[in-house]
Amino acid sequence: MTTTIIITICLLLLLAYIFDISSALTKIPSVILLLLLGWFVKQTVELFSIHIPDLNPLLPILGTIGLILIVLEGSLELELNKSKLAVIKKSSLNALIPMFALAFLFAFAFQFISQASYKIALVNAIPFCVISSAIAIPSVRNLSEFNKEFIIYESSLSDIFGVLFFNFIALNEIINTQSFGNFSLQLLLIIVISFIAVLGLSFLLSRIKHHITFTPIILIVILIYAVSKVYHLPGLIFILVFGLFLGNLDELKRFSWIEKLRPEKLDKEVKKFKEITTEATFLIRALFFLLFGFLMEAKEILNPETIPWATGIVLSIILVRWIALKFSKLPSSPLLFVAPRGLITILLFLAILPEQSISIVNKSLIIQSIILSVLVMMLGLMTAKKNETN
User: Fold this and answer.
1) Residue ranges of the alpha helices (H) in 78-173?
2) CA angle (268, 281, 250) in 5-degree steps
3) Which residues of the chain register pLDDT less than 50?
4) What single DSSP character describes residue 143?
5) Distance between CA 324 and CA 296 in Å, rounded?
6) Strand residues in 141-257 grouped as ranges (E)
7) Fold classified for 2-388
8) Cα-flanking dihedrals φ and ψ of residue 374, to 5°?
9) What is the C-alpha to C-alpha distance for residues 83 and 131, in angstroms, rounded to an integer?
């Protein structure tokens, strides 16, 4: 039995690797194929009456680790210099403003249909407003350099802003001046912690001589994020700061104190660290979407009660995104279509407390919104003009 499980997992991950390679040619996002593969495995298991323990508790664990690695991978790729200021500004605004607009719009609709308080409706609306970097970044490899860079910045920042926004609304019973003050203190505290932790981790990365170098660094990063979450601190800020620091060492070499970190050796270690992070991110992301596909039910995918809502949500996302791109004076194609919902949407949905949940926001609506948004992205990328790709 153990051997069979090992063979199955290896075959599934190898197929995930093939999906990842082939997506550049077929323009079919690998996440669609992973979900279908996971669902197919579930049907096979049921057909042969194979007993599988409850795997639901694994989903948030894989999702959280995946989120950490995805934001870390994205931030390691981001360059901070004067030439990037324009794209950083535009991507930040396009990550933040449409999120707020969609959240308040969806919250109003959810409140109307469920008669819940506006605050509870807002908690349920936010998961639908975050762009999934786990899906967006791997899907834009063949776009032009500017479009690819814009999506990396926008989707990574969307993940961070979305988690901050969700936690602020969900964890504060009353939204007032005091809650904003507490939130500001939390941000300030995590920035200080991030600065100290980043220097400490960078020092370790440049000094460790043991043949195992990167595993303890990644484990410490995950540990700091988990501890910060216990105290309701925005841990993704730390992940972003850590990745930006390591990814922009060349910009920091003009400061004398950086010499204490042995930048030449650190630079070599960072290149290896990027490779390890990319490999680990692929592995966790593939396992997460395979597991999510395995846990999906056909009745949830085809639920007729939520299909109109899911369609309305995706159409609203496209409309608001089109307006935002026009205001930013950015081309609609193909950026308009690259706004998939995915891993972060699932994680935030799972984080909604039972007393804050409303009936209309259920697993069916989440699955359908994700699938429809990814299909829209797929069709948009398939029809993109040649001059919009490399």
Assistant:
1) 85-114, 118-125, 133-139, 145-171
2) 30
3) 387
4) B
5) 33
6) none
7) Na+/H+ antiporter like fold (1.20.1530)
8) -70, -40
9) 25
